[in-house]
Amino acid sequence: xxxxxxxxxxxxxxxxxxxxxxxxxxxxxxxxxxxxxxxxxxxxxxxxxxxxxxxxxxxxxxxxxxxxxxxxxxxxxxxxxxxxxxxxxxxxxxxxxxxxxxxxxxxxxxxxxxxxxxxxxxxxxxxxxxx
Amino acid sequence: xxxxxxxxxxxxxxxxxxxxxxxxxxxxxxxxxxxxxxxxxxxxxxxxxxxxxxxxxxxxxxxxxxxxxxxxxxxxxxxxxxxxxxxxxxxxxxxxxxxxxxxxxxxxxxxxxxxxxxxxxxxxxxxxxxxxxxxxxxxxxxxxxxxxxxxxxxxxxxxxxxxxxxxxxxxxxxxxxxxxxxxxxxxxxxxxxxxxxxxxxxxxxxxxxxxxxxxxxxxxxxxxxxxxxxxxxxxxxxxxxxxxxxxxxxxxxxxxxxxxxxxxxxxxxxxxxxxxxxxxxxx
Lengths: 131, 283
Hints:
The complex is a heterodimer. Chain A is built from eight helices and no strands.
């Protein structure tokens, strides 16, 4: 992976840390987050690899992965991280960087079973996946 | 509130999870501490907004705190786990960050300002502290039912809003034992059910449900007990594509049954009545 230390790349790291209030550099790549995550089999890249890519400035590489969208903010990683990083907040920050560019990840017209779904599921999904 | 608890329903309790509201209200009524619905309340937003700069999505939950304050109350009780989590996290944020509270109050039209003095509780915390009273009201202990408790995420994480130990909770086990249930140890009880992915990534939820339910069945469970309406929907609805069909109860339904209170259980996808008849809990 190419290390990008350009101003633009470092702005991405700064933005993630500003939005999350967490230090991405505090991660020691122990893999505890990925070991406990119930969704890793559906993620393109493991959570700790996302951390590494943020530090390396690989914004474009991260944004084409699905990891932050598969994360359902269950906070399992956040309570287990030995470095006390609230990882769910970092995933949220990456999601928000995309959503604030007016990009939606869910289309209401493509939702099946709308009448069956509990309201809280629909509200929750649209809060997490639309800008 | 001397005569009971101020109750925040949230959107789903009035519709898809009306079985839960009905059973919880009946149980609390029987215990002499009725749930009294707030005069006014707002949708909590279902999921907590986690970015530092986002005050906007804290407004709805804090408006609900203002409603409680307006009623002169210092405690609000929720049934829904996601409502509990969002209200609690937003409220704690206002208590811990005076600058955020000031910004909030500058925006809110409510008068007076929110003072940050309301506390949010989940119904399980109230029931945990009333186990002796529950025991006295049990008429038909559900001794033949093997129940796997399921906590999901929102009662236990993040840890600053947890109602019990984040990794090894016992609050449900204690309540199930109080009503005579045969409690099955459930190692998957704190794992996420897939949550809101049920809207547009149901394949992920199906895998989570298969994993959670298959473990419970292998360990001998007749049914699952929980409190989150979204977990209930996922574990109940998404069993249709698995080899399993065990009922998924709200814990308050089981408490009501043990107390001899009639409960509707109208919204369940997997009808629990045949199991309850087999076990002589229903006639």
